[in-house]
């Protein structure tokens, strides 16, 4: 029994006449009879009462007709979704991204892409770097926007943006008036940072370690905007990419960090061992045509 058999059964159930149903389906009566036999054999019961003037749906048949209509609708809906995914012009791009690009890089990218392909749809997932990796590995997302760069043996990478890092300090802080600051100057300050497991937490920890100290954390947050707000409230200082909290009104002062290594790289990733849908491939091609930006 195939889906097409159920379609034919539904037409036959509506007409209750073999000749009329065969005509409507554009097939022969023998073909329709064989199809009906497959459906009845599949359920193990007759679905019609055979009468002199035609067929009459029996109680078993009414149960199967209800299920057949629901099943046909579900299969058609699935096919429509698959067709949409396969259409590079109007298909759905499954994209996972960091919290910290939600107010800056991502909106700019989506706006530019929609201008080039206005029919594109996006299924967006927001999370930490390790969540994005999981989304790509599970197939819940095809493209990720992430930092830092993950395993090069498993994921393709295209650099999107290099962000200068700054030491964010409360207003009126002794370091707030400096044009640039060495991170070591904040070694004795309480820090506000991300929770362990976040990609930027690893970056900030490595910067502090290179400066010769381990930061004393007053609070561990789950997003960069919260960190900036708590610094503005005087809870401590923080290393942040200033462009990731643009437009904020926390009052925190961003003092650029001295040192050429004080950068955060954000890039687009995809699984090397997985094929992208046409919609995702079109989006990747578009993104890779754009120049790397520095903020």
UniProtKB/TrEMBL annotation:
InterPro entries: LysR_HTH_N, LysR_subst-bd, WH-like_DNA-bd_sf, WH_DNA-bd_sf. CDD domains: PBP2_GltC_like (cd08434). Keywords: DNA-binding, Transcription, Transcription regulation. GO terms for molecular function: DNA binding; DNA-binding transcription factor activity. Residues 1-58 form the HTH lysR-type domain. One of its GO terms (cellular component) is protein-DNA complex. Signal peptide: none annotated. Belongs to the LysR transcriptional regulatory family. This is DNA-binding transcriptional LysR family regulator.
């Amino acid at each position: 029994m195939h889906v097409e058999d159920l379609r034919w059964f539904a037409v036959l159930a509506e007409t209750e006449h073999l000749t009329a149903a065969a005509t409507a389906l554009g097939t022969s009566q023998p073909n329709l009879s064989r199809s009906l036999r497959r459906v009845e054999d599949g359920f193990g019961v007759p679905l019609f009462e055979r009468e002199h003037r035609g067929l009459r749906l029996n109680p078993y048949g009414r149960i199967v007709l209800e299920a057949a209509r629901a099943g046909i609708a579900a299969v058609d809906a699935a096919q429509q979704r698959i067709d949409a995914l396969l259409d590079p012009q109007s298909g759905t791009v499954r994209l996972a991204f960091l919290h910290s690009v939600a107010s800056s890089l991502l909106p700019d990218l989506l706006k530019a892409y929609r201008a080039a392909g206005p029919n594109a749809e996006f299924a967006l997932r927001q999370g930490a770097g390790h969540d994005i990796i999981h989304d790509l590995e599970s197939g819940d997302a095809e493209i990720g926007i992430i930092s830092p760069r993950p395993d090069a043996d498993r994921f393709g990478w295209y650099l999107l943006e290099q962000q200068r890092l700054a030491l964010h300090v409360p207003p009126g802080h002794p370091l707030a008036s400096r044009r640039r600051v060495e991170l070591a100057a904040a070694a004795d300050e309480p820090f506000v940072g991300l929770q362990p497991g976040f990609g930027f937490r690893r970056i900030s920890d490595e910067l502090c370690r290179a400066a010769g100290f381990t930061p004393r954390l007053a609070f561990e947050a789950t997003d960069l905007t919260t960190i900036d707000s708590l610094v503005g409230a005087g809870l401590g200082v923080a290393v942040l990419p200033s462009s990731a909290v643009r437009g904020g009104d926390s009052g925190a002062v961003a003092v650029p960090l001295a040192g050429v290594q004080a950068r955060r790289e954000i890039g687009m990733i995809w699984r090397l061992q997985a094929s992208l849908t046409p919609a995702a491939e079109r989006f990747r091609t578009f993104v890779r045509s754009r120049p790397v930006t520095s903020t």
